[in-house]
């Protein structure tokens, strides 16, 4: 199966409204086979990252499987949507680009946003922040300003955190819809982390 086109991504988001009321009733039921499958893929994905292991073919197969499950509307729980989001968020960066966030498939990050947004709307609260992060990655991968302000990184020297550009017209009210803190609080966190770096250098 190939990558999902933007058209398919949008069709998927429309289907979420139909699924949502049914899924909300299923949250207290036994974990489905599909959720179990996605959870296993998620746990393997996390294990590879945490242990610094590389398996590009295995990672690609997991992403392809997630896309298959999305395309067939088989994901049936908030947890499943969340795990699927994280797997797609780990789409590799594109090489040979000056853009730090260039992705081999920016559409995966857009789809990840909708998946985590759906999980959040089904009361999987931690998914809200990840939804914002997925949208920010989608925008940054195309050289655009992020909206939610979730992305910041070390500079090349490793002595300061850079908070990537944030769309000034995107409101804190919109951030709050995903349970994300106001921009000023995010900026304060970046400043605090920079203070810690300077303190560590001084010692």
General description of the model:
This protein has helices at residues 6-24, 33-50, 56-71, 78-89, 106-121, 127-140, 172-176, 183-202; strands at 152-154, 161-163. α2 runs antiparallel to α3 (56-71), α4 packs parallel to α6 and α5 (106-121) runs antiparallel to α6. With 203 residues, the chain is mostly helical. The N and C termini lie far apart (53 Å). The chain contains eight helices and two strands. The model has no long low-confidence stretch (mean pLDDT 88). The longest helix has 20 residues, at 183-202. The chain has one domain. A two-stranded antiparallel sheet has the order 1-2.
Give the SSE map:
Elements: H1 6-24, H2 33-50, H3 56-71, H4 78-89, H5 106-121, H6 127-140, E1 152-154, E2 161-163, H7 172-176, H8 183-202
Summary tags:
about 200 residues, mainly alpha, two-stranded antiparallel ribbon, 8 helices, 2 strands, about 60% helix, about 5% strand
Characterize the largest beta sheet: strand count, sense, and whether it forms a barrel.
Answer: 2 strands, antiparallel
Q: What is the number of beta strands?
A: 2
Radius of gyration: 18 Å
Structural class: mainly alpha
Mean pLDDT: 88
How many domain regions? 1
Q: What general outline do the C-alpha atoms trace? A: globular
Q: Treating each run of at least 4 consecutive H or I residues as one helix, how many helices? A: 8
Return the string of H and E elements.
Answer: HHHHHHEEHH
- Percent in strands: under 5%
Secondary structure: helix percent:
55-70%
């Amino acid at each position: 199966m190939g990558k999902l086109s933007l058209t398919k991504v949008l069709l998927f988001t429309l289907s979420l409204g139909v699924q949502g009321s049914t899924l909300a009733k299923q949250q207290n039921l036994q974990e489905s086979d599909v959720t179990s499958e996605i959870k296993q893929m998620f746990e393997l994905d996390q294990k590879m990252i945490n242990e610094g292991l590389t398996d590009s073919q295995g990672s690609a197969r997991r992403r392809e499987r997630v896309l298959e499950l999305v395309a067939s509307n088989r994901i049936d729980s908030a947890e499943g949507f969340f795990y699927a989001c994280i797997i797609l968020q780990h789409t590799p960066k594109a090489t040979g680009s000056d853009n730090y966030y260039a992705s081999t498939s920016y559409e995966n990050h857009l789809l990840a946003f909708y998946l985590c947004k759906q999980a959040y709307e089904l009361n999987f609260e931690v998914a809200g922040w990840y939804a914002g992060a997925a949208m920010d990655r989608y925008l940054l991968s195309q050289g655009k300003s992020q909206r939610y302000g979730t992305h910041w990184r070390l500079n090349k020297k490793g002595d300061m955190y850079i908070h990537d550009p944030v769309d000034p017209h995107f409101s804190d009210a919109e951030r709050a819809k995903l349970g994300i803190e106001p921009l000023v609080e995010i900026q304060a966190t970046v400043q605090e982390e920079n203070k810690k770096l300077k303190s560590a250098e001084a010692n």
